[in-house]
Amino acid sequence: MRGIAITVLSLATAATTVLAGSKISANRPADPEGQYPRFGACPDPHACIFPPDVSTFLPGAFFDLRVELHAYDKDTSKPTPAAYKEFKTVIRKDRGDWVDINKFFKIKSTPKIENWTFDWVDSIETQFSKFLNNTNKPIEVAVASRAWRKLKITTPGDYEVKVEYGPKKSYSAKYTIVEPKKPKKKAKNVILFISDGTNVGMVTAARALARKHTSGKYEKLLTFEDFDHLGHVITNSIDSLVTDSANSASSYATGHKGTVNVLGVYADSSDDPFDDPKVELLTELIRRRQPKKAIGIVSTAYGQDATPAAWTSHTRRRSTSAEITDQILHGMGNWTNPVVPDVWLAGGAEYFTGSKALNKKNYYDLFKKSGYNVVMDKKSLLGNKKKSDKLLGVFRTGNMDVWFERNLFSNNTVGNKAHPSLNGADALGVDQPGLSDMTLSALEVLKKRGGKDGFFMMSEAASVDKQLHKFDFSRAYAELIELDVTIKNTIKWLKKNGEYEDTLILVTADHSHSYDVYGSVDSNYIMTHDDANDMRNAIGTSSHSGWPGYFDTNGDGFPDNWFPKVVLAAGTNNSPDRHEAFQTSPKGPRSPTVETKEGLYVSNPKDIAGKLGRGIHVESNLPIHEDQGQHSMSDVFMYANGPSADLFKKTYENWEVFFKIAEALDIQRPGKHE
Ligand SMILES: *[C@@H]1O[C@H](CO)[C@@H](O)[C@H](O)[C@H]1NC(C)=O
Ligand SMILES: *[C@@H]1O[C@H](CO)[C@@H](O)[C@H](O)[C@H]1NC(C)=O
Ligand SMILES: *[C@@H]1O[C@H](CO)[C@@H](O)[C@H](O)[C@H]1NC(C)=O
Ligand SMILES: *[C@@H]1O[C@H](CO)[C@@H](O)[C@H](O)[C@H]1NC(C)=O
Ligand SMILES: [Zn+2]
């Protein structure tokens, strides 16, 4: 094979994207086998470059570059060798001459070398040394590093960054700066709905609950199932098959693969979660290239959670909620324009005021000072008259309550002391807005503020994932059905407001749970028969997998009765130790496991299904420290409707979603001032 022949990556049509993606990888080293690498996306024995090999950028998009050199001895009885003292970093374009990196980016002084160490846990035996009573120690790695901040390359083409270290050693990473294309049909507005942790199995189940069928034929599909285009998104992260919500949302928001727990950065090996090399967010790019466009973030989670935070924040650790709250307003110093969304609606009040807020500052006051109208309950959200003001809605500490507790069992929220003012009062379920209330209220403000420049909104049904983690299937279905009703109401709003033709609507997930249905189950039989084997007979498979008893006769999109006799026999491919009796808990979300004194997780006797061993015993097939169901690897759906929706058909990777949205919005090209 000849050298690295790379043609300019064209994102003009969906057909070329994945092909082009694999072209960049041609002749590059394959990811190695193994669960305990020294460091993710670091195939060289000593050198790492971030962004890593085969990264792709829009022309002019900001990024930080970090080079790390790793010195170590695998024999842990020996002292750690000294860090590398010197190394040289160079870059070339289109296989031309190598140029010193500082010269290329017109940087006057080379960044100083930073040193630190990190522990490389290199095996299962070392990870679980305490459990195994062995004396295995992690390998200490001495790091020398340099970081170049806020770089950009405006000329499309192929670039290669190389680090030369030690005698005659080098490692290089290849980058592609894409050739921007005008969209065939520009989208004035983009609404990205993310149904967290939702796989195709969940969509099928939600349809079975929410839609009428006759002779086995559905009268109607779910609203989003009727969209014009359907694509298939590959969700794995840079160094793990199974992704979390942070790096998957971050891929959508940046066009780069991520590592578990990262938002808007490539993970480096230092302890500091805020020094990792950043990549520019779609929302930051909108602020630079279409500054009058309005931006909205809506979620039923705490708003510092991974999926919403991915659109405002840069951090190695998604759990740095106080800093994430600060970044909503202030970004990362002067790295680039902070996002300062026009609308931000979610839970997570504990990081706005009180002891958990950054430096105990009152962020409600800071948001007010920077022009936000602040609302704290459903009534004031729906009654919002200040539609031309920026809007901050914080409705609860922690995650917002789920649809069940907001609509059916508000009494379960009595005593939660979760009022967003942190005054110790309750945030009752009935006083919290639903996803539809939040999304439509956001649209009112976004339309007013974006005007002819339009808007970008991310709206998340967060608790599909959260309830699936706990095997509370009924609550998970309700969250997904709520999203579908929200989409229906959104389309109605867009049509009424003359925005429908100009709005690209995307409905996707960030990753899967391995949810599926294998039959139906008589939920009464299982509760009234005590023999363990007899309980299993409540499950009807194949020809006995008859329809469940959910009907929507009042046409609100939700089943009228959540407690029918026959329900779906559902499960996932992984579970901690628990019991499953296929019941819906009226007393609040399920808690299927409980921790023992030894730190193991076993079936919770207080869980509705666990009582007296009621239900089918599901033995754990997870590592000993896992107390809940885990995400899974399957690709996720992408439903797309409106201008440029055809970009989202076929199969592609999560990082490519960024480039597709950027093309639809026409923000691929650097502005004149860049
Ligand atoms: C980094 O480590 C090298 C090698 O041990 C040492 O020579 C150098 O002084 C260190 N630099 C800093 C800034 O600590
Ligand atoms: C580790 O030691 C403890 C205490 O002696 C013992 O109970 C346990 O079985 C040992 N674990 C293994 C995996 O050998
Ligand atoms: C960012 O701010 C720092 C300190 O305030 C300053 O030294 C640096 O030059 C600024 N960088 C840019 C790109 O404005
Ligand atoms: C909720 O609690 C109130 C007061 O205890 C009670 O009157 C009401 O019936 C309860 N509602 C439901 C739906 O259980
Ligand atoms: Zn999850």
TrEMBL record:
The keyword Transmembrane does not apply. Gene3D superfamilies: Alkaline Phosphatase, subunit A (3.40.720.10). The keyword Signal applies. Residues 1-20 form the signal peptide. Its EC number is 3.1.3.1. It is an enzyme of class 3 (hydrolase). InterPro entries: Alkaline_phosphatase (IPR001952), Alkaline_phosphatase_core_sf (IPR017850). Keywords: Signal. Residues 576-596 are annotated as: Disordered. CDD domains: ALP (cd16012). It holds the Pfam family Alk_phosphatase. Belongs to the alkaline phosphatase family. This is alkaline phosphatase.
